[in-house]
Amino acid sequence: MDLDCSVEAGWPGGTDWEALAIRVAEATVRIAPELANPRLSASLLFTSDAEIRGLNRTWREKDKPTNVLSFPMIGRADLLALAPEGPPEMLGDIALASETCAREAAEKGVSLDAHAAHLIVHGLLHLAGHDHELGEEEAGAMEEAEIKALALMGIENPYERPDAT
Question: Count of domains in the chain?
Fold first, then answer.
């Protein structure tokens, strides 16, 4: 899978966001091998809350920012049946909101890099046809895949609560 990244102003310096996204995609492909098809491409936009709010309003009729949006362009059945030879196929688009991501990372007590990595994995799994809103079983499977992909990067389970015993 080819991942095209664009980082807009507002995302903090000090992190090579494109390099992080590529590492995340490589880890996610190991957990979701259907994403390894060489014909696939996806775009990832690191943008502002204002931009995400506009996208969320336009495409989901929700007038508020959110941490990540995914816009799949190929259905899961078609993705699984996609031959490795042939013309390029656009898997879809992902967008992350800087202010929301930074706020959530601070609330969780994790680095922005780790939280952004989690959200990119989440977005890629949505592009692969996974949907946590379809029920508990799918939500659990999606969480498990996220945990495994992040572990490959040395990132702790984002669903564990440090104060939980």
Answer: 1
